[in-house]
């Protein structure tokens, strides 16, 4: 945690508590050579094959439908043409004899790759970039929800610079390095995002083949050294290693920092970052370059694949603005980042299971709580005793009752205490017994064997999905985990939300 020594202030002087950046100390930027090959997301490939198969089958069904309903619907010429014998004999067309092989081959080709790349992922990423398109990318370096916000910030910066954002995978900084990575598209529904937001979005695995052994050189901006004063190197991240990128960083000018000289706020505004994407402000700031760790090359920041080391601290108005309804990175991006259908299905099954209901039946309205403890204990400098720091369960119960009342008033739905789910990083079994004594149910991933059934990533992702699908939510102030769930429940479910204040005795008194 970097910001425990004081509270931030906005430029107007208003005190502002930052979100917890519970990042493990950022590792110095030193040459790093791959010692092992990252796992390859085979699922993506299978998905493409599956999509192609589904496209073929759907086309067949459509054609068949057109033939059978030819009295009312005009039939396309291809469906009317008498099929040649060799087409009829083709195994692919056995069930759909009016299709020609060429049609079947042609369709998946156009549907399989997003329009912002030349084709399938290539060994070197530049071979897949279109000459008429500009791109933007950045890396991750914190807890998972901080990282989700970082990608939201990246995508928003893409919107305002007319560039296609390219997101990489999620890295397991808080759940153990041996958990491996999970792709963005295994968590968030990329196609739904594109369709509903109207914003282009690419995953790195759609650009560069994850199995490639080619190391690509890339010039990027080093924002980190311009916004904080303790680490004299770009923000460390394992993502360039996973992508086999050899980065040469150019130090960004001091004016990217929103409040110059102020150590407790690392924000740089989206528009100050955007200035570096255009020639007038880019060119005068070139030259302060670090050699790339592997090939030792000195590169200016790339203009085709614009790149910044770390965008968690990007903001429009002030840090912690995800709490504010104006936050553009939520309104234009985060709001459209829905869970994949698979995650949603498993989350719904989990909710029903802990309520003792049939797994695949309808999910009843419920309230979820997120209590964040763990490393937040290092933010307790205002608490006289350790017990005074975190909100006690009766204080949380008061917030739950507020949410119950609001849902009853606004929607006429009464949610009993037995339909309240607790999610938390707390390990203390005594505390959990008290949770159950409130009448609430525990989301217990050990008992549910979530890691064994799915992956190490699933407890945290499922808890976030479960929080987001409730009609009410009670979260922990300053936890990015809670902050995102609060916004999802507000915008997706028109739900009732409260955040519990903490850090000293009576912090949530109201
Ligand atoms: N499964 C699970 N993990 C949690 C929960 N709360 C915190 N964690 C873990 O702690 C990390 C906290 O980091 P982050 O996601 O950045 O949220 P923040 O630190 O609360 O702002 C998460 O990524 C999880 O690994 C919880 O309710 N459920
Ligand atoms: Mg965090």
TrEMBL record:
Which UniProt keyword terms apply here?
A: Carbohydrate metabolism, Fucose metabolism, Membrane, Transferase, Transmembrane, Transmembrane helix
- Membrane-crossing ranges are 46-67
Q: Show the Gene3D superfamilies listed in the entry.
A: 3.40.50.11350
Disulfide bond among keywords: no
Name this protein carries in UniProt: O-fucosyltransferase family protein
Task: State whether keyword Translocase applies.
Answer: no
Q: GO biological process: what's one of them? A: fucose metabolic process
**For the region Disordered, what residue ranges are annotated?**
1-23
């Amino acid at each position: 945690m970097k910001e425990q020594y004081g509270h931030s202030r906005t430029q107007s002087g208003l005190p502002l508590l930052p979100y917890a950046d519970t990042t493990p100390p950022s590792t110095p930027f030193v040459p790093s050579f791959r010692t092992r090959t990252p796992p390859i997301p085979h699922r993506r490939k299978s998905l493409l094959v599956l999509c192609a198969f589904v496209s073929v089958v759907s086309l067949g069904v459509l054609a068949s439908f057109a033939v059978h309903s030819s009295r009312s619907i005009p039939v396309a010429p291809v469906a009317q043409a008498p099929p040649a014998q060799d087409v009829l004999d083709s195994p692919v067309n056995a069930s759909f004899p009016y299709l020609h092989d060429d049609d079947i081959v042609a369709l998946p080709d156009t549907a399989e790759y997003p329009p912002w790349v030349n084709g399938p992922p290539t060994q070197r990423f530049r071979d897949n970039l279109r000459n008429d398109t500009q791109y933007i990318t950045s890396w991750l370096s914190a807890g998972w929800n901080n990282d989700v916000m970082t990608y939201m910030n990246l995508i928003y910066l893409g919107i305002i610079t007319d560039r296609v954002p390219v997101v990489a995978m999620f890295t397991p900084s808080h759940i153990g390095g041996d958990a491996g990575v999970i792709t963005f598209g295994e968590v968030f529904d990329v196609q739904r995002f594109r369709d509903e937001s109207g914003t282009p979005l690419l995953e790195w695995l759609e650009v560069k083949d994850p199995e490639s052994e080619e190391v690509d050189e890339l010039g990027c901006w080093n924002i980190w050294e311009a916004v904080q004063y303790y680490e004299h190197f770009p923000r460390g991240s394992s993502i360039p290693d996973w992508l086999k990128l050899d980065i040469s960083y150019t130090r960004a000018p001091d004016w990217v920092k929103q409040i110059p000289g102020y150590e407790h706020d690392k924000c740089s505004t989206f528009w100050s970052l955007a200035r570096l994407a255009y020639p007038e402000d880019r060119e005068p700031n070139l030259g302060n370059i670090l050699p790339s760790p592997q090939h030792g090359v000195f590169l200016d920041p790339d203009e085709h694949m614009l790149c910044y080391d770390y965008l968690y601290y990007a903001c429009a108005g002030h840090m912690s603005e995800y709490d504010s309804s104006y936050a553009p990175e939520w309104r234009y991006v985060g709001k459209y980042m829905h869970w994949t259908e698979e995650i949603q299905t498993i989350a719904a099954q989990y909710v029903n299971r802990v309520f003792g209901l049939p797994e695949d039946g309808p999910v009843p309205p419920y309230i979820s709580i997120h209590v964040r403890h763990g490393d937040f204990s290092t933010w307790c400098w205002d608490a006289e005793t350790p017990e005074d720091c975190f909100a006690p369960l009766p204080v949380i119960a008061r917030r739950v009752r507020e949410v119950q009342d609001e849902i009853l008033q606004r929607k006429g739905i009464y949610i009993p205490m037995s339909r309240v789910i607790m999610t938390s990083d707390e390990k203390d079994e005594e505390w959990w017994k008290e949770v159950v004594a409130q009448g609430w149910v525990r989301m217990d991933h050990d008992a549910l064997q979530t890691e064994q059934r799915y992956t190490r990533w699933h407890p945290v992702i499922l808890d976030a999905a479960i929080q987001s699908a409730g009609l009410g939510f009670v979260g922990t102030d300053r936890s990015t985990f809670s902050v995102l769930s609060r916004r999802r429940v507000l915008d997706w479910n028109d739900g009732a939300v409260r955040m519990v204040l903490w850090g000293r005795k009576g912090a949530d008194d109201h």
